[in-house]
Amino acid sequence: MVNSHYKDVIKYFSKKAAKYDLVDEQLYWRLSDKLLEKIIQVKLIEPFLKKKELKVLDAGAGTGRWSLILYNFLKKSFKLHFDLVDITKEMLTEAERKIRKKGLTNTMEIHLGNIEDLSDYPNDYYNIAISFYNVLSFSENPERALKEVFRKLKKGGLYASIVANKYHSYFFSILNNRVNELADIKSGKTRYTSEMPFIHCFTPNEIRKLYQKNGFKKVEVIGFPNFVYPNIEDARIEGQSRQSKNLLENKKNFQKILATEFRECFNQDVVGRGNVLLIIGKK
């Protein structure tokens, strides 16, 4: 039975599912995605280049955007199998449509489920698990979710997740004159728009310790983007801020900023500046 927390999460994403991938048209998120692609090629793919086969768990897959992106990076070098799990059937409907269109139904399986209960999937099975763009933050109990994913990974497997950054949440709420939410952020809860439910936010050290507490080793936390931030208009699926458009529609600007962000993102001096936090831990 779905509890009240997850009813709110499902309601939020079910309304957005049909238009969720419009984020691809927003210049800020295009920059953020290109940066993430460069990071995961180094941190998530290179460690497995000697293998011939990879099994991937996308826990909180949404519309399948990141499974499909990861597939494109991996398809020439590995035999692949993906399991895509999400709690919102409308999001999975979009994922299934794209997977069918690309002829990948033998490679990618769709499952309705909750990251906090992965008992239907084999233990010690996956090489890579991902939970991108705030899946752990939207979960009711992030620690329980981490424990579940840890069990599913093979020894040496990697889990990459993205969570809300508490420090950036302070900045974003002040920027948008939502000072009344600062106390919520201090307690570890944030939201980017008034329409979304509150989600968990973490400092880099908090999320690193949570990974380590639940068995992960060699935990790395990467903030990104660190020098370009979204405005309130960029936090909505449709539309984008004039500032982001003016800055990033110039292709030379876009590439220079992307290169700078990538060069500096592994510097631990700036991790707390990130719009979001990417965490990669090894079993």
UniProtKB/TrEMBL annotation:
Which Pfam families does UniProt cross-reference here?
A: Methyltransf_31
Question: Any signal peptide, and if so, which residues?
Answer: none
What family is this? Belongs to the methyltransferase superfamily. Arsenite methyltransferase family.
For this entry, the protein name equals: Arsenite methyltransferase
- One GO CC term, this protein: cytosol
Spell out the reaction equation it catalyses: arsenic triglutathione + 3 [thioredoxin]-dithiol + 3 S-adenosyl-L-methionine = trimethylarsine + 3 [thioredoxin]-disulfide + 3 glutathione + 3 S-adenosyl-L-homocysteine + 3 H(+); arsenic triglutathione + [thioredoxin]-dithiol + S-adenosyl-L-methionine + 2 H2O = methylarsonous acid + [thioredoxin]-disulfide + 3 glutathione + S-adenosyl-L-homocysteine + H(+); arsenic triglutathione + 2 [thioredoxin]-dithiol + 2 S-adenosyl-L-methionine + H2O = dimethylarsinous acid + 2 [thioredoxin]-disulfide + 3 glutathione + 2 S-adenosyl-L-homocysteine + 2 H(+)
Membrane-spanning intervals of the chain: none
